[in-house]
Amino acid sequence: MGIIRAGGIKIRCLDLQASVDYYTKIIGFKVVGQDKDGNVYLKGWDEFDHHSLTLMQSDKIGMEHVAFKVETPDDLVFFRNKLEGAGVKVTKLAAGSEMGMGEALLFQTPAGHNVKLYAEMEQVGIDVGTTNPHPWPDDIQGIGAPIFDHLLLAAQDPQKTVDLFQHLLGFWMAERLITKNGDLIAAWLFRTNTPHDVAVIAGPDGKIHHFAFQLEDWYQVGRAADILAKNGVPIDAGPTRHGITRGLTIYFFDPSGIRNEVYAGGYMPYPDSPVITWTEDQLGPGINFFSGSVNESFTTVFA
Amino acid sequence: MSNWKIRIEPDGIEVESWPGESVLATLRRAAPGILIVGCRRGGCGICKIKVVSGKATLGLCSAAELTAEEREQGMALACKAYPESDLVIEPVRRAKQKLA
């Protein structure tokens, strides 16, 4: 019962074809369809559902919405009541608001991000099948990211958006970053068994800091760095390790300037795990454990 | 293509643009620490400048960060601005860190 993962993200692209080329040839996702409005749907090779990434043409870049999958249609009723009971305006979307997607709820975080909840999506299956599967498929392109993993939302008042995720949507907090006075700067929240399915950081309302693809291990992160460099993809930070979440990481920018991450590792949090706290003076090693410092663009650039 | 000169105001620093370089690429190479190097894709708007004089070709930029009105007023994103003459520019937002 409840949210089972961050199922997908829809982003606005300045040059749709350039983004399709990048997310297929460099990230290694596959196109699964295009709707009548021109939106292009993609998935990773290890995702069962129809899609996890939707690209739309726009003159303004950014995130159109993030979609979380819930376990059953009853969860949609539960969350609609819970959100509306707390004064959040919820719109019910008929099946087919996205290719392959069943009925959905649409609402906004206090910072203005569009959030969808959905229970059903057509399954197209993983590329290696489900009977005696090989560990990875033969036709991987570029990095060959298997799945969409998480995203980081920006909010002027991160506490309010964190409260929505924790108190209305049932997320647990793995880690947090606080000021000397104890005010929240950022929080890493989870519903799965990774340290974050969504995180929230102080920044301009409605924007995102990045969204991330999961990789298997440190070797795959290093290989991804080679592929990014060979293709002239602007790298923002890494490869490095995060102190926060212990993840192995690279940050880089897609053709529209939206920050992507490849992420591997981290630990397994549980709902009863005490929250890990980082103090703002330790942001450097929290983000970049090796250098202990953060590049200015990392804390100033949002999409 | 020529090696155009780019003067950065109010510093008065003058740098030489190499063929094919965006204004941001030139500043990153020759005058690091003045502009923040962000997405380099015309998306984030962190490298916004005012082109005080001279001509530059401007590529695709997010209208959320550079409006049509700002374009008319001579504003540009340095990562998508390619000089076609000597330029005088003014950064809108300056880097705090020395290294770009």
Q: Name the poorly predicted regions of chain A.
A: none
Mean pLDDT of chain A: 97
The rounded Rg of chain B comes to 12 Å
User: How would the global form of chain B be characterised?
Assistant: globular
Considering residues with a beta carbon less than 8 A from a beta carbon on another chain, report the largest interface and each chain's count.
Answer: A-B, 22 and 19 residues
Helix percent band of chain B: 10-25%
Number of strands of chain B: 7
Oligomer category: heterodimer
Strand order of the largest sheet of chain B: 2-1-7-3-5
> How widely separated are the two ends of chain A?
32 Å
Kindly state the percentage of residues in helix of chain A.
Answer: 10-25%
Instruction: Please compute the radius of gyration of chain A using only Cα atoms.
Output: 18 Å
How would you spell out the order of helices and strands of chain B? EEHEEHEEE
Number of helices of chain A: 6
Amount of beta strand of chain B: 25-35%
Structure report:
The complex is a heterodimer of chains A (303) and B (100). Chain A is an alpha/beta fold. Chain A contains six helices and 17 strands. In chain A, the strands form two sheets. A nine-stranded mixed sheet of chain A has the order 14-15-16-13-9-12-11-10-17. In chain A, strands 2-3-4-1-5-8-7-6 form an eight-stranded mixed sheet. In chain A, a hairpin with a 5-residue loop joins strand 14 and strand 15. The mean pLDDT of chain A is 97. Chain B has 100 residues and is of the alpha+beta class. Chain B is built from two helices and seven strands; from the N terminus they run E-E-H-E-E-H-E-E-E. In chain B, strand 1 and strand 2 form a beta hairpin. Chain B is globular and about 30 Å long. The termini of chain B are far apart. The chains are: A alpha/beta (303), B alpha+beta (100). The interface between A and B is medium-sized, with 22 and 19 residues.
